[in-house]
């Protein structure tokens, strides 16, 4: 049955579309995975652990995740200032997904 022009659009997929848009942005899953598996990290440490990520991209991803409430930024006004990033509790709901993706990645692309 064809949709008439007067019927409202089906927006039931919008929450999933938003979640997938965030997760699929470059470096986001690896960044979340590092924080999930290794705990709180400072910016420089995250950059070293992620490898080829640029400073600009890491800054953008951290700001986006902080704005979404996925990552907390803790600022210590020391000299030099210390900024630590941690996962928000809500992101821990992704734990089964992270663990399973890790297993699949090892099976498909693991050291062999």
TrEMBL record:
**InterPro entries linked:** ArsR-like_HTH, HTH_ArsR_DNA-bd_dom, HTH_HxlR, WH-like_DNA-bd_sf, WH_DNA-bd_sf
Keyword Membrane set for record: no
Lineage of source species? Bacteria, Pseudomonadati, Planctomycetota, Planctomycetia, Pirellulales
Q: Which UniProt keywords apply?
A: DNA-binding, Transcription, Transcription regulation
Query: Which GO molecular-function terms appear in the entry?
Result: DNA binding; DNA-binding transcription factor activity
Q: Where is the HTH hxlR-type domain?
A: 14-112
Which protein, by its recorded name, is this? Putative HTH-type transcriptional regulator YybR
């Amino acid at each position: 049955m064809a949709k008439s022009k007067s019927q409202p659009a089906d927006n039931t997929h919008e929450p999933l579309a938003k979640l997938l848009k965030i997760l699929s942005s470059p470096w986001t899953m690896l960044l979340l995975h590092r924080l999930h598996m290794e705990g709180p990290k400072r910016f420089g440490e995250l950059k070293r652990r992620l490898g080829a990520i640029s400073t600009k991209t890491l800054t953008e991803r951290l700001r986006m995740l902080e704005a979404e409430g996925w990552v907390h930024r803790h600022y210590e006004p020391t000299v030099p200032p210390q900024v630590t990033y941690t996962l928000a509790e809500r992101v821990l709901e992704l734990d089964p997904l992270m663990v399973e993706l890790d297993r699949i990645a090892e099976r498909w692309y693991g050291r062999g």
